[in-house]
Design brief:
The protein is built from nine helices and 15 strands. With 342 residues, it is an alpha/beta fold. The chain has two domains: 6-121 and 285-302, NAD(P)-binding Rossmann-like Domain (Rossmann fold, 3-Layer(aba) Sandwich), CATH 3.40.50; 123-280 and 310-329, Dihydrodipicolinate Reductase, domain 2 (2-Layer Sandwich), CATH 3.30.360.10. The strands form two sheets. Strands 14-13-12-11-7-10-9-8-15 form a nine-stranded mixed β-sheet. A six-stranded parallel β-sheet has the order 3-2-1-4-5-6, sandwiched between helices. It starts with 5 loop residues before the first strand and ends in a 13-residue tail after the last strand.
């Protein structure tokens, strides 16, 4: 670490990498030393930092950590190079494009005693952070179901993976994170309509370790952009819109009705709706601050590589289920794999 603070590098200047460059260049206590992209800086996003062609050149400059925002298929190769050089890393999600690749990254960074995290940015969405705190406090009582919908137009930046690894990994991670529970089974169907070799839509039904039912609907063939998460339990339903970072609570009413037929039909009664006032900081900024602090040993509020590995395992089970038309059971995490989810 230099006198000016941590020395950081960035690998990849694609659509997400450009946002990382913007945040890194203004991050307190961090100096953006250089950026790696063999295609150069076509969009002028490097914020004045030199643009290099290889990861080795970046390592030779002497850095404390790097943000890996290159295509998913390259995460393992780049991550292993950083770990081998003793460099900490924040790797964009998914951590790798295969379970074995993710496992090799976990082993490389852990064996080197290095801080490493996965860019599951939804964990830093204000609505989901507030939701998680409220669930931990027991405000919903017993949780019955988690439903997510994530859909929108096709992102032309994506060429190497389908909708499951690119988008559904957001929902898999946030579901396990907000509930604090692992997936135990998943059943899914996929559709390919864009002429690409990968799936464009997925519908999945799963179960968490405590019996909570999970439903995910993800596609990138819709003109409607939606980022919806609902958690239903014995006291009502939380709804998070992560596009606007709004969180609302719809409570079950205790108000009785004399209309017997209506009471029998409705099951539960519609109660008050509360919309919470939440400070809305940019999730990427908060993610970077947390990773910086983790490298400094101040905080550990990051998505660890082991948690990222578990998300890749569930995504692989989704694809396996869709391919073979059956429910896939997920083994429990090995000792230490489900570490602190803070």
């Amino acid at each position: 670490m230099s006198a000016q603070g941590l020395r950081a590098g960035l690998i990849g200047l694609g659509s997400m990498g450009r946002h990382h460059a913007r945040v890194l260049s203004g991050l307190e206590g961090v100096e953006l030393v250089a950026v790696v992209d063999p295609m150069g800086d076509k969009h002028g996003a490097a914020q004045g930092a030199p643009v290099l062609s290889t990861v080795e050149e970046l390592i030779d400059l002497g850095i404390d950590y790097a943000v890996v925002a290159c295509p998913t298929a390259l995460h393992e190769e780049v991550g292993l190079a950083l770990a081998g050089a003793g460099v900490c890393a924040l790797i964009e999600k998914p951590v790798a494009d295969t379970v074995d690749g993710a496992r090799r990254l976990v082993e490389a960074f852990e064996s080197g005693g290095l801080v490493a995290g996965v860019g599951h940015i939804e964990r830093f969405n204000p609505a989901l952070q507030s939701l998680r705190v409220r669930l931990e406090a027991g405000e919903l009582g017993e949780v019955f179901q988690v439903v997510t919908r994530r859909q929108g137009p096709f992102p032309h930046r994506i060429a190497d993976v389908g909708v499951v690894k690119d988008l559904a990994t957001h929902d898999i991670d946030l579901t396990a994170w907000v509930t604090g529970r692992d997936y135990t089974s998943i059943a899914a169907r996929t559709v390919s309509k864009s002429g690409r070799p990968h799936e464009d839509m997925v519908a999945a039904v799963g179960q968490l370790a405590d019996g909570t039912m999970v439903n995910h609907l993800v596609n990138w063939l819709s003109p409607l952009k939606e980022r919806f998460t609902s958690v239903t339990g014995e006291r009502g339903c939380f709804i998070a819109d992560t596009l606007t970072a709004d969180l609302t609570f719809h409570s079950n009413s205790a108000v009785a009705t004399e209309w017997e037929a209506l009471r029998a039909f409705r099951g539960v009664s519609e109660g008050d709706m509360i919309r919470y006032a939440i400070p809305k900081r940019e999730p990427l900024q908060v993610e970077h601050e947390n990773f910086r602090d983790a490298v400094l040993g101040v905080s550990s509020n990051i998505s660890t590589l082991r948690q990222g590995l578990r998300t890749v395992e569930v995504a692989a089970a989704v694809l396996e289920s869709a391919e073979h038309g059956r429910t896939v059971r997920l083994p429990g995490p090995v000792q230490g794999e489900r570490d602190d989810q803070s």
